[in-house]
């Protein structure tokens, strides 16, 4: 039971499979059907870990056990699978396979159909194999392991098992037919050899992996995926997940690949990652929740998001994903409950501002309740009267109202300009107020008053920029000071005059316009000359720089 539990957790562990098999042989070899049970166990091991690049010990153990039982045809079958499997000791296995072929009569190691087919080809094409030209067909190269068993066979056996020359020809023919398979497998090994050599830590450890190791795993996975062998790709991913178990991008790459093949496999990968290895990593949880939502499994998606929120509280992305999940599932009551809950639990004004803005947008854009959206933002301003983002969102709410109410918008502008926000921000908002009045205003007097107030703000801002916050006095060194003669008059040289300095522009407001009673709005900057008959432009953006459409 312990072995089975361990192998369910680590199915790629060749050492654990070998320990289990040796334990099974020791304890149950005396049972009646022990051989069948042991064979099934070996097949399970090969199915789980046989494609591992370093699984050579497992293959050798299986071959040795079949040889011990005298099942030569089964040994041949194992070698047939092994020479098609890229492993670290592929050349060693090929040599052992040729030794196995040359050490036994073809009838003992091949099934009857294969043996008769090879013998028939040799008899029909005897011109390719003459008795006197064994060197030309490469017989010595094929028989690399010395003399075969027929040379030492008891008298009379050669007659019963066929002519020795014919047996050698069958062996050569069979080895030549497998040489092509070996070359193909060798090419597959060469594709993976560099990646395998660069794997320095194939086991799990809590210490971070080097960047080179992570890069090697990524490139190895991409190469294996490009080959298109699904079984080998899964095996390599499982190997990678042992060494890279603490890196969520590898788990997400694995899950994304499996989405094309098995949804249950995807769910298993996410479950192992989130429940065992990465319980506090948010992105893998969000990816799992999104996967379950795509499968319309809303209860499980809610549970996943709740788990990561409990493990790592205070993550805004998780909170908003929970709210968005309820909104997409048309559960608006639950979404509003979550908004209110997060507002109540907010521990800072910044957090409260964030959720207030999101909640106001939700109420206006999704629910269609502008009055409640306005109330949420006003409540936030009572807590923080200098929050520029909330003011901008409140302006956006009024702008988006249908129909637009001028008095409400102007009231919001006035409230903002009287608040504790920065002077530069007030200048930008004042510019936006003039734009609003020009587009939607119904009274020219309000436009004039807004312009006058804007001019005052601009002058105040310019004066603040010119006036340093604190006058800095630089103490001259003693040798630079002017020496004063107490007995005579002091001679101070006049300051040098820079004749290349351009004349200063005139100071003062522009001349009044007889048509409107106030100066026109300049096209580039206040105080710049206007072109004749030009429509007064605005030197300000639609929204203050540094903020997006929604105010942050």
Automatic annotation (TrEMBL):
Keywords noted in UniProt: mRNA processing, mRNA splicing, Nucleus, Repeat
Q: Does the keyword Repeat apply?
A: yes
Q: Which SMART domains match?
A: HAT
**Superkingdom of source:** Eukaryota
CC terms in the record's Gene Ontology section: commitment complex; U1 snRNP; U2-type prespliceosome
Family, according to the entry, reads as follows: Belongs to the PRP39 family.
The name under which this protein is listed is Pre-mRNA-processing factor 39-like isoform X3
The record's gene field reads 106075974
């Amino acid at each position: 039971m312990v072995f089975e539990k361990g192998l369910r957790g680590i199915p790629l562990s060749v050492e654990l499979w070998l320990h289990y098999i040796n334990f099974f042989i020791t304890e149950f070899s005396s049972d009646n059907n022990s051989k069948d049970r042991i064979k099934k166990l070996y097949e399970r091991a090969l199915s789980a870990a046989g494609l591992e690049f370093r699984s050579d010990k497992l293959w050798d153990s299986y071959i040795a056990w079949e040889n011990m039982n005298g099942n030569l045809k089964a040994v041949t079958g194992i070698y047939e699978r092994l020479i098609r499997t890229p492993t670290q000791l592929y050349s060693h296995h090929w040599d052992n396979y040729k030794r196995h072929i040359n050490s036994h009569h073809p009838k003992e190691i091949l099934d009857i159909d294969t043996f008769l087919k090879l013998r028939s080809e040799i008899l029909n094409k005897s011109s390719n194999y003459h008795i006197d030209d064994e060197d030309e067909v490469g017989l010595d190269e094929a028989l690399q392991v010395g003399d075969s068993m027929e040379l030492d066979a008891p008298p009379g056996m050669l007659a019963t098992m066929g002519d020795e020359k014919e047996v050698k020809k069958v062996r050569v023919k069979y080895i030549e037919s497998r040489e092509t398979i070996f070359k193909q497998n060798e090419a597959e090994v060469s594709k993976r050899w560099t990646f395998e050599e660069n794997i320095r830590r194939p086991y799990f450890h809590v210490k971070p992996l080097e960047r080179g190791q992570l890069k090697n795993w990524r490139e190895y996975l991409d190469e294996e995926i490009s080959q298109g062998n699904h079984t080998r790709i899964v095996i390599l991913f499982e190997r990678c997940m042992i060494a890279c178990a603490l890196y969520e991008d590898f788990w997400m790459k694995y899950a994304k690949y499996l989405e094309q093949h098995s949804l249950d496999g995807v769910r298993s990968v996410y479950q192992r990652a989130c429940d065992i290895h990465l319980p506090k990593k948010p992105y893998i949880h969000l990816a799992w929740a999104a996967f379950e939502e795509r499968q319309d499994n809303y209860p499980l998606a809610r549970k996943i998001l709740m788990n990561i929120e409990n493990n790592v509280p205070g993550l805004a992305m998780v909170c908003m994903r929970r709210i968005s999940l309820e909104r997409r599932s048309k559960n608006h009551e639950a979404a509003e409950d979550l908004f209110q809950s997060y507002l109540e639990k907010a521990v800072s004004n910044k957090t409260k501002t964030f959720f207030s803005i999101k909640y106001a947008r939700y109420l206006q854009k999704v629910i269609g309740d502008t009055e409640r959206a306005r109330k949420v933002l006003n409540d936030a301003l009572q807590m923080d009267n200098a929050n520029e983002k909330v003011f901008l969102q409140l302006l956006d709410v009024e702008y988006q109202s249908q129909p637009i109410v001028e008095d409400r918008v102007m009231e919001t502008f006035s409230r903002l300009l009287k608040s504790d926000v920065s002077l530069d921000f007030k200048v930008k908002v004042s510019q936006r107020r003039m734009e609003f009045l020009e587009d939607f205003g119904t009274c020219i007097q309000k436009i004039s008053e807004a312009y006058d107030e804007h001019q005052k703000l601009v002058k105040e801002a310019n004066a603040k920029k010119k006036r340093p916050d604190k006058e800095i006095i630089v103490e001259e060194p003693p040798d630079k000071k002017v020496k004063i003669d107490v007995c005579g008059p002091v001679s101070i040289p006049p300051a040098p005059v820079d004749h290349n300095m351009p004349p200063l522009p005139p100071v003062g407001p522009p001349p009044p316009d007889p048509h409107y009673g106030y100066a026109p709005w300049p096209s580039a900057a206040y105080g710049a000359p206007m072109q004749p008959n030009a429509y007064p432009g605005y030197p300000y953006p639609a929204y203050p720089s540094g903020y997006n459409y929604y105010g942050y």
